[in-house]
């Protein structure tokens, strides 16, 4: 029973951290869905020079972000 509670607390903590980091990407002009994916591919939030810029159809990742 205690192990199950610990697992739930850890899962909720990971979900909250993932959401916070995704919103950091959102603040750098990325769509929220892109933010969640970028958290996984870039292993965390954006650096100062990373973000998104408007592409032809949707925002695209760039590592020369100026915002």
Structural features, described:
It comes from Streptomyces polyasparticus. This is Secreted protein. This protein has 67 residues and is mostly helical. It has one domain (2-62). 52% of the residues lie in helices and 12% in strands. The chain is built from 2 helices and 2 strands. A two-stranded antiparallel ribbon has the order 1-2. It is elongated. The mean pLDDT is 94.
Summarize the SSE layout with pairings.
Blueprint: H1 2-26, H2 32-41, E1 51-54, E2 59-62
Antiparallel strand pairs: 1-2
Helix pairs in contact: 1-2
Protein name: Secreted protein
Organism: Streptomyces polyasparticus
Per DSSP, the total helix count is: 2
Q: What's the story with the biggest beta sheet? A: 2 strands, antiparallel
Strand content: 5-15%
| Order of the strands making up the biggest sheet | 1-2
- Helix fraction by DSSP (H/I, runs of at least 4): 40-55%
Q: Which structural class fits the helix and strand makeup?
A: mainly alpha
- The number of E-state strands comes to 2
In the predicted model, the low-confidence regions spanning at least 5 consecutive residues are none
Rg:
15 Å
From the N-terminal CA to the C-terminal CA, the straight-line distance is: 48 Å
Order of helices and strands: HHEE
Number of domains: 1
Overall 3D shape: elongated
Protein name: Secreted protein
